[in-house]
Specification:
Length: 288
């Protein structure tokens, strides 16, 4: 039963990592850039929930998602859009700068001490010898719904098909009448909304938030995206689930628990040596 509990907790955590990884992989697949400020959107989402929690938890969650969507759009317009034709290094440095900017602003507003943000008091479900928190069940269920909905959106909606077209060939998509700027903006909005939703599930697991909270989850979600194949939506989902399960099982073994992060990043290095494009990633031929 302990094995099953750990596995379910791993799936739940993996679902959160997958939601964040989807933001990374969608932005990379369409805009061909790594948005390292994406993890800090989680932190902004958590603090937004704190501001609106006194009104109502549902209102706080919706407000958080809307604010993070708008923030993602503003970041793309102000920081990234002027660098469309710039070198990848310039974009990367800008992304790191935006990340530190968000952390600094949050620290000035809310202070550096962790804030306790209790969205809801949820109990534990016991089935025989199996004990699973309701927060874990809700997280797992919502993660599955979000992943399925996003997959259907990309596959069947007009905007989703436009996203696929832009990711394949931006120039050709523009010649076909697709507004590339709008598609990139929508991609940032969706990714930021998913990051805000991920902050809800993190707070259900551990109700604390600090200005640097999003850094490690952001890096781990990026790791998940690379493991699955950066640019691949199914790959981001698979990578997130695998990383979450590995983390929970590593933490359940006292001997290796302190080295959980090292194990996760070691797996990334080994996988990249064996399969550089990731588990579901495709090799792309660059035209010269």
């Amino acid at each position: 039963m302990e094995f099953l509990t750990t596995f379910v907790n791993g799936l739940s955590l993996g679902g959160i990592y997958a939601m964040i990884a989807l933001g990374y992989t969608m932005v990379y697949g369409i805009a061909k850039m790594l948005n390292f400020a994406h993890g800090d959107i989680i932190m902004v989402g958590g603090y937004t929930i704190l501001l609106f929690l006194a009104v109502n938890p549902i209102v706080a969650i919706v407000a958080s998602m809307i604010f993070c969507m708008l923030l993602g759009i503003v970041i793309e317009k102000v920081a990234y859009k002027p660098l469309r034709g710039a070198s990848p290094l310039a974009v990367l440095i800008t992304a790191i700068g935006v990340s530190y900017l968000l952390q600094s602003i949050s620290q000035m507003i809310f202070g550096s001490a962790p804030k306790f943000i209790v969205i809801a008091e949820l109990g534990i479900l016991k089935i025989g010898g199996l004990s699973i928190g309701y927060s874990t069940i809700i997280t797992l269920a919502c993660s599955l719904v979000v992943m399925i909905a996003l997959s259907l959106f990309v596959k069947f909606s007009k905007t989703g098909r436009a996203m696929v077209a832009v990711s394949e060939d931006k120039g050709a998509a523009q010649l076909m009448g697709i507004n590339v700027n709008n598609i990139i903006m929508i991609t940032f909005a969706i990714g930021s909304a998913l990051a805000a939703l991920a902050s809800v599930f993190f707070l259900l697991k551990a109700p604390t938030m600090s200005p640097t909270f999003g850094s490690l989850p952001g890096i781990k979600a990026f790791t998940a995206a690379v493991i699955g194949g950066i640019g691949s939506i199914p790959g981001a989902m698979l990578g997130g689930i695998l990383l979450g399960v590995i983390e929970c099982f590593a933490q359940s073994v006292p001997v290796i628990s302190p080295y959980t992060d090292a194990i996760e990043f070691s797996i990334l290095i080994i996988l990249l040596l064996v399969k550089p494009s990731g588990l579901l990633g495709k090799k792309r031929r660059e035209k010269v």
